[in-house]
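As the work plan foresaw, our protein records have gained a structure token line. A representative record is set out beneath this paragraph:
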Amino acid sequence: MSLTKKGEFWYGTTSGDTQAELRNYSVANRHEAVRFASSKCDCGCRTFALQTDEEAGVAIRTCSDCGQEHLMGDSADYVEEATPEAHQCVCENEVFELMSGVSVYKGTHDVRWYYIACHCVECNLVGVFADWKCEAGDAAAFLAKV
């Protein structure tokens, strides 16, 4: 399926749809995401509850199967000063497949901006639920922790 707009929201069924919406959002934000990674728990599950604090630069995903919490990206560096809040879809579901994307500084591999896109497992809504400026160093190392 490709992205489909219903009302004011976008819907899709594949990780490619989620990545496309993340890219569209990032282009509009003037910090185009150029590297992407999907979240996966150590238990193999790919669905999570998500909490974020954009001001502190913290994201926490909680596995919907095993309940393991994971600090995403460089969140461990900032979690002490954070007040994360749970995300909920417009359909009131709280379980998502997560796709992270980063923009990098020109001519480098250093993270400049971090985006977290969600795909609702109930209604197929896709959208960027959180983003912030992020000075996290190497993009590959950062995305390995999402």
Q: What stands out?
A: The mean pLDDT is 96.
